[in-house]
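JOB MANIFEST
job_type = single_chain_structure
chain_count = 1
residues = 681
[input]
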Amino acid sequence: MTLTTSGLAKAYGARQLFSDVSLQLSPGRCTALVGGNGTGKTTLLEIMAGLCEPDTGTVSKPRDIQVGYLPQDLRDVSESTVGQHVISGAKKLLQLSQTLADLERQLTEAPNDELVARYGEAQSQFEQLGGYSLESKAAKALNGLGFTASDSNRAVRELSGGWKMRAALARLLVSEPDVLLLDEPTNHLDIDSMSWLERQLKNWTGCILFVSHDRDFIDAVADRIVELSSGTTHSYEGGFAEFVVARNERLARIEEAATRQAREVARVERFIERFRYKATKARQVQSRVKTLQKLERIETPSRSDLAARFAFPTPPRSSRVVAELDDAAVGYNDGQPVLSGVSLAVERGQTVALVGPNGAGKTTLLKLLLGELKPATGSVRLGANVRVAAFGQHQADELDGARRAIEVFSEGIDAGGRNLRTLLGAFGFGGDSADRRVGELSGGERTRLALARLMVEPANLLVLDEPTNHLDLPSCDILEDALCAYRGTVLLVTHDRHLIRAVADALIEVRNGSAVWRLGADESVLFPQPQNPTAGSPQISNESAAQTHRRNSTTEAAKSGSAADRAQQRRANAEARAATSKLRRQVAKLEQAWEAADTEVSELRRQLSDPEIYARPEEVHALAEAHTEAAERAASLLTKWETALAELETLEQLKMSPTQAAVKASATQSTHRQTRNGASG
């Protein structure tokens, strides 16, 4: 079934969102809708879903077509359990189920051939539509989106906002509508759930139109991209990479045509100006004046949204180690640790992304690193002179909707002679936009305003929790460029894999009660493969029952036969962690001692360079001996530090892949060269 829009236009007051928008959604096609914040993407989806009326234009669709819509924000919350809520999406199947129940009751009371025929027809239709596998289908959707088997019995109203959105998405997928309209479906998903959703949408047989800022998600799912800009739409075949190339080519053609038109207009205007008062040329002048009046000028699309226009201020310098955990454990309920055995160090200037499924402990680890939580065991150390600026994923929603953007932005800021309106304009709120009420802003504009408030003041540790939620693609580009240029340290929680690859020096994979340091942006972590379901969890793979039984039998046999091996491995891991922790402390102490000795050498060298000291030969002799002794001590400490560091890196590389080890070794060699150069200087 096909859904078609023709000539759609929508305005709010004097503000025209779009006009003459025509789209066709066909079965088997997946279309990504992209565009800047506030251009009307959500409004267009609401019109197509029948929730909003256009000013002009029509939406054409078959009478019996089923349209499913996932908004960015839920308006109503179900009073049922999660499982009941998801199953309730399959309305047609539930109606058929009720029909079958009614027919069964009638057959029990007064059986006849007509009732038997009707029951057989309804039962056949129920079976064809997958009615007997409805509960299994709902369980698969919930499992794929991160719910556990026990979550099915929880009340929807008890869930957080993000998990409510996941339940709504599961319900929508189970209903299997002919047209699927999704407004930022990945905002509340972790990387595991995103990978699962990608696989579902790839195999979807109906029409899909979705809004997203996630390039990897767009590339994985979409076969067409529609851009909403300058009040209208432009369609491009292919994924995001093809869209970027084709868009630039279209802009170049328009700019070239506008340049030619401008040259022609200038030529005609020169003719008019030259012969305006000559009677013999009056007819020709009037003809050209009318031509210019009727001419439809070519408007050149602005490229300003493609350029990074702001950046973080220069941060104050912090200590080399910004935050360090040593065999730390932290827990909440019944003394059970959420994370345990965590040993890692975040150094100055690093951008580290925390990845893993929701609920695994990423937020807990952030609080532990920042000293907001105390470890149950182990230790946590926050470095000296660390100034933190934090952005929470719900921070934009907490802004006061009644206040103006400039008021929210400027509150508590020490302007220091800076023009705050100019600063806010650099974040996309120029002119009258600075005076708009926060409640009138789109979700992406509110997020951009909250980020602007964070970025305008200097900090040397940025903690960003899902900063790209609701941002448009140009704003994501701007954030990416700002993070690449930022000189401080960044702890980043995001599901945007493109952003992670662009800015992250390392990953911390938080999963199954542990936090593992991964050098670089490990693709196996960013694109996790489907995991085998745990005992008691619903089955979400496509394998046959026999294959499942054989695999589970093999797994159980392996488990029962390797208990001793696992216990031995745990002891070995504990010993390795203890050795690594001890060696890391030794490295830190040696580095501090070497830095102190090197500082002493520099001070003695400064004193020896003073010409007046040579008038006192005894002092010169004492200083020279002290300098020699300090230099030898510094050299000895440097050698010991390098040896200990090499041993530490050998232990750590045993846990790395060959590629990670090679990258780490290269970085270490560069650090050693810089250290030696500094020491020799």
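[summary]
Residues 304-308, 532-564, 655-681 have pLDDT under 50 and may be disordered.
The first strand starts at residue 3 and ends at 12.
exit_status = 0
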